[in-house]
Amino acid sequence: MKTFLTLITLMVSTTISTAAPGYDFYVCAKVNRDYVIGSKVETVNGVFKRAEDGSWEHQGYNDTTLTAVAFDPRDRNVVYTSANNGLWRSLDGGQHWRICNDWDMTEARHVAVDPNAPDHVYLSLPDGIAVSTDRAETLVRRENGLPERGKYTQLVTIDCTQAGRAFAGCEVGIYFTENGAESWRRVLETTDMIDDIQQSPHHPDHWLAVTQSAGAWSSHDRGLTWSRIDGVPSSHALYNITFDPTDPLRLAIASWGLGVLTSEDAGKTWQDRNTGLPEPHRVWRVGVDPDGRLYASVHKQTLFYSDDFGHTWQPDTLQGSLVNYFLTLPKVTP
Fold it and tell me: How far apart are CA 271 and CA 184, in angstroms?
């Protein structure tokens, strides 16, 4: 088992990169296009780090169900992953792992560490939210204020400006806490799943969210009130949304059926950017690196990249992959 490079966490959860000075770039992906049950084809899945030559180096353990990865910003050997059987943690940079949850906290959707309270780990589950205040030594459910029905939680996104402040994307809307999940309240009501919530790296008061069939939403008051974004269709599922860290005017959305949607005027207008991507346009995730390179993971195809924000696309070297997560971390100085 390879060892994770020891890194500290930074930026918003979905942002990634290619090789750029000062950064390491990661994806959580399954690479098993030719695999079927009983096949002798060997596949390698999980976390991959982008090497300087453009190749992808597998990190940690092999798991097709891995959905996200997070790091403790104080101790660069502490790594968390969410997967089908729950929450995994390594204290030695990925050499050894243990599962941190009981049988009633499986099928984890996302894991997040509060950068301003790093002992606090949030685990998103199909039936709610679990939180640890001791680096995942113990996990307890913190669902006060979540609905009895409709608390399927796709992700918890932490506000980078304040400890204990976070937003949960649930089945019936966005829920907000400012006391480390001791209590939650709904700040946006929807009739279907919130698929992604992101905070702007340029203006921390600005937040974006996308849904299964209720379009895209924006907040400019730290996520307390939300308004529908004009020009983004609600006819197809929107799986994630991302900011370009190099340009506050650039945004991108991944959609099942609509493909890649981009805006280059801070969301005032939107265009589909699918020329060069395979049909049907079933884009699972998008991400933007610190150099402004845009990525799109196409279902049952591969990872593509664009250096002109979607006007043209090229296949990446991670062939046959489906990316669940993008992450950018500062490079560690030896």
Answer: 35
Torsion, Cα of 64, 284, 81, 47 (10° steps):
70
Name every residue whose Cβ is closer than 8 Å to that of residue 195 and which is 6 or more positions away in sequence: 154, 169, 210, 211, 212, 237, 238, 239, 240
Distances from the Cα of 77 to the Cα of 72, 93, 210, angstroms: 8, 4, 33
- Structure token pair of residue 254: 């991944």
**Other residues' Cβ atoms within 10 Å of the Cβ of residue 71:** 23
Each residue's pLDDT tens digit, 135-167: 999 999 999 999 999 999 999 999 999 999 999
Least confident of 29-38, 244-253, 283-292: 29-38
DSSP-derived 3-state class of residue 213: coil
Instruction: Write out pLDDT tens, residues 63-72.
Output: 999 999 999 9
pTM of the model: 0.90
CATH ID of 23-330, from 3.40.250.10, 3.10.290.10, 3.40.710.10, 2.130.10.10: 2.130.10.10
Q: Where in the chain are the domains?
A: 23-330
Angle at the Cα of 172 from the Cα atoms of 236 and 82, rounded to 5 degrees: 85
Residue 274: strand, helix, or coil? coil
